Amino acid sequence: MNVIVVLIDTLRRDHLGPYGRPPLPTPAFDRLAAMGTTFDRCCLGSYPCMPARRDLWTGRYEFPHRGWGPLLPGDRDLPSVLSAAGVRTMLVTDHYHLFQPGSGNYHFGFEGWEFIRGQEDDHWATADVPTPWPAERERKLHRRWERYWRNTADRRDGLLWRSAEDTFAARTFAAAAHWLEANAGTAAPFFLLVDCFDPHEPFDPPAEFRRAAGAPDDAVPWPIYGRADRYTAEELTGIRALYAGEVALVDDRLGRFLDVCEGLGRLRDTVILVTTDHGHLFGEHGMIGKPSASHGDSNLYRPLAHVPLLAYHPNGRGGVRSPALTQTVDLYPTVLEALGVAANHPVDGRSLLPLLGGRGGTDALRRVACYGKFGEAIQVTDGELVLHQWPAGEANAPLHWYGAEPPAFLRPRGVGAPEPWPAPALARYPVDWVRGPCRTVLLDAAEDRDLAAERPGDVARLQAELRRWLREVGAPAEQAERLGL
């Protein structure tokens, strides 16, 4: 058996056919759902982009210990474990954070890797070129837009891509398909990870997808995170349309990739897992983008945290829906089991393999799922209710960053001197993390009002589950103290 994991950044489940009525058709995602299993209650684990990837690479939750950063000494990362067991491993990606100082060493364990250069703020092209502005709002992000424009100007006519073939999604999936074709004769089992940065902003679909989504010419492709009311209703509509066009582009290229898999006979011997790191806000709860405590509210609401997960197994049935409460950390043991490799080290995830295609496994993987961003709330859900647990007072302490080096990317207000720590090659750094005026709330699927006062029993139940989970995953004891538990 082989395994392909497709990680698609910033993918909202409500834009996919298997999860509702998307703004534009998504035939590739529909095809995957018809082929295999749609998981209806999948949650992220560690947030945002790179913490989510460390969950996948290691099968361990990162956010109770640290935030955005590289793999650490002692991590049993997935590609290294598989390569040591004789599995051919390959990474194809345009996600430049995987290689970026302060976060990037995620390619080290792969036998081979291909990096499609130039996405977002990738420090690649340096030539001075005239920079057109797709919307006046973009001038507030001028350095990053100018960088992105330098990286892509040679593939454009005016502001538009010359062809959909020139987009990053097209190049990434084409490179992955080429690798499959070039390695079609290998006898070794393989693990292919396709990490596609789109539909992450800038929301920049080619002309045919812009038209299909009804995006105006002056739509804002790179909205500024924070309060949504900085944009007019018309601007928000345009932003959403650009995003829908990006999702449709990714769906189109995923579909072509699946065609190659089928043509090579890989649907007979390959498990395929497709998911994302997180969603995105487009005005929900008055915010746009990724929320943060500095914006006044950083709860991980459902459009961010309730993520898609589609899985195909050659020996399973198609069109299956699973109510299992799943998370990103579950992909690690799933991949190992599918490839027949034992995990002789601790992992937090649980294999999904028995659930794929209705193969008879139990759907009760866990009673609750816990997820969060380092130094902020921890969310705990039973699949229906979500408790956003914050410190009771204004203090957000005690709090330490556990790692080989202090935070280098998403920086706190202050970092103290490192303190010795028993774990090899690690230290702990006292940190002053921005908390903001957030408070503990209990929300249902509608997320329209706080239910904590009228349902104290559910609050206490979920808090007890959170305390148990913190012990189970070996979180620092201070996390319970910080959260008033």
Describe this structure in words.
This protein starts with a strand and ends with a helix. The relative contact order is 0.17. It has 485 residues and is of the alpha/beta class. The mean pLDDT is 93. It has two domains: 2-355, Alkaline Phosphatase, subunit A, CATH 3.40.720.10; 369-482, no CATH class. The strands form five sheets. Strands 1, 2, 4, 5, 8, 10, 13, 14 and 15 form a nine-stranded mixed sheet that branches. It has a five-stranded mixed sheet with strand order 3-16-17-18-23. Strands 19, 20, 21 and 22 form a four-stranded antiparallel sheet that branches. It has helices at 27-35, 49-58, 78-84, 142-152, 168-182, 207-213, 233-263, 302-305, 331-338, 456-472, 478-482, and strands at residues 2-8, 37-43, 46-47, 88-93, 112-115, 156-157, 160-161, 190-196, 226-227, 270-275, 281-282, 287-289, 306-307, 309-312, 320-327, 369-373, 378-381, 386-389, 400-403, 414-415, 419-420, 427-432, 441-443. It is built from eleven helices and 23 strands.
| Category from helices, strands and their pairing | alpha/beta
Average the pLDDT over all residues and give the rounded result.
Answer: 93
Instruction: Please report which band the strand proportion falls in: under 5%, 5-15%, 15-25%, 25-35%, 35-45% or over 45%.
Output: 15-25%
* Separation of the first and last Cα atoms: 45 Å
CATH superfamily of the largest domain: Alkaline Phosphatase, subunit A
CATH class of the largest domain: Alpha Beta
Determine the fraction of residues in helical runs and give it as a percent range: 25-40%
Number of strands: 23
The rough form would be described as: globular
How many helices? The count is 11
CATH names the topology of the largest domain as: Alkaline Phosphatase, subunit A
For the largest beta-sheet, the strand count, sense and barrel status come to: 9 strands, mixed
| Architecture (CATH level 2) name of the largest domain | 3-Layer(aba) Sandwich
